[in-house]
Specification:
The chain is mainly α and 371 residues long. It has two domains: 4-220 and 364-370, no CATH class; 226-362, no CATH class. It contains twelve helices and six strands. It is globular, with a radius of gyration of 22 Å.
Length: 371
């Protein structure tokens, strides 16, 4: 089915991505690079330990993409092998997780709603099952509480909190989602459970957390994302409306707080038109009449401005704006049409609602909080 050249290319991308996430994992787990050490070009001990992060993490992405691929093969829809995208940025001193994700390319034409549904839902469900198992293992096999002192011996210094701002540390804190919080409260030993700013040093928890993040992102009920395919199968006559409304809610929350009426007029005079232009770019591919499009954009900006005026502490998560741009401008909010509007059947309906439940459990309003 695939040529030797294809197998070689995709295998090479997989290996490079695994190496990249291992290097990135070492930086997160131990706060230092495993390259260029006193022991030589590579610190093999830390490299081997970093595999505890990269193998579970890349394994989850692989299972996710294989879920799509094997379902495509089952339905005789031509698709590529998974493309793994390496993304280690340690060579320029920038933080990264070692990859920009993985995708498969559908090369055939899909004319069936059920095939769209099956291919879309298979990946998130398969990846979620593996992520759930890794998180269960991580929560039930936490190291002793003094494990963190091996990575941060400075925490033993009673003056560390006082001098923390002078130490040069970047405080990265993970936000909670419903599933992670529930598993912490029911599975973890409270005496061993780290706070959310230390999750990055626990390979199985960090890998599982990132997997939940990407699962929720893929299950957003918008356009041609996996969640969009699910909605397209469950609600064939209402996909466009649901997709647009979900996108409006997503970008509204993402940009909440950017237009701050308590900022200076010098800031607002350029921030307001620039932000409205950004919204227009995000909605530019939406199949909406121009007048309606501008009404939506202006309403978003006005309501965000008023909310910030009456509730100054209110804040969305601007990190989502990048994904809002990619979804709106590149992927689009529309779904390819198929013949007929017949629903997918009771068994698939159950899987579809299960996928929606997984999205609710995995979505993290503020996934990465940097101080």
């Amino acid at each position: 089915m695939y040529s030797k050249k294809e197998y070689l290319k995709h295998s090479l991308l997989f290996v490079v991505t695994l190496l990249a996430t291992t290097l990135a994992g070492g930086e997160w787990l131990y706060g230092k690079s495993v390259l260029g050490t006193e022991e030589g070009f590579l610190n093999w001990e830390y490299f081997a330990k970093s595999l505890k992060f990269s193998i579970p993490f890349i394994g989850i992405l692989l299972i996710h993409e294989l879920g799509h691929l094997l379902t495509s093969i089952y339905h005789k829809v031509k698709a590529s092998l998974p493309y793994f995208i390496p993304g280690w940025l340690g060579f320029i001193g920038a933080p990264s997780i070692g990859t920009f994700g993985a995708v498969i390319q559908i090369k055939g034409i899909i004319r069936s709603r059920r095939k769209y549904f099956d291919i879309g839902v298979a990946g998130p469900l398969a990846g979620f099952v593996v992520a759930l198992g890794i998180l269960i293992y991580g929560f039930t096999n936490l190291p002793d509480a003094d494990y963190i002192y091996q990575i941060h011996p400075e925490y033993l210094d009673p003056d560390f909190e006082i001098n923390g701002e002078e130490s040069g540390y970047v405080d990265l804190k993970m936000g909670y989602n419903l599933l992670f919080l529930a598993m912490e409260k029911t599975l973890a030993d409270p005496e061993k459970m780290p706070n959310m700013s230390e999750i990055i040093h626990y390979p199985f928890l960090f890998a599982g957390y990132l997997a939940l993040f990407f699962t929720a992102l893929n299950l957003l009920p918008i356009g041609q994302l996996d969640g969009g395919h699910v909605i397209f199968g469950l609600f064939p006559n209402h996909h466009k409306t649901i997709s647009i409304l979900a996108y409006i809610a997503f970008i509204f929350y993402a940009g909440l707080g950017i237009l701050d009426p308590y900022e200076s007029i010098d800031y607002l005079v350029w921030a307001i038109p620039l932000y409205l232009f950004f919204l227009y770019v995000c909605f530019s591919k939406a199949d909406i009449p121009p007048q309606t499009k501008w009404m939506i954009i202006l309403l978003i900006g006005a309501i965000q401005y008023l909310l910030k005026f009456y509730y100054p502490e209110i804040q969305g998560y601007s990190g989502w704006l990048l994904f809002a741009f990619l979804i709106g401008r590149i992927l689009g909010l529309e779904h390819p049409s198929v013949y007929g509007t017949k629903r997918v059947g009771p068994k698939r309906m159950i899987l579809g609602w299960l996928a929606i439940l997984i999205f609710i459990l995995c979505f993290t309003p503020q996934p990465f909080i940097i101080d």
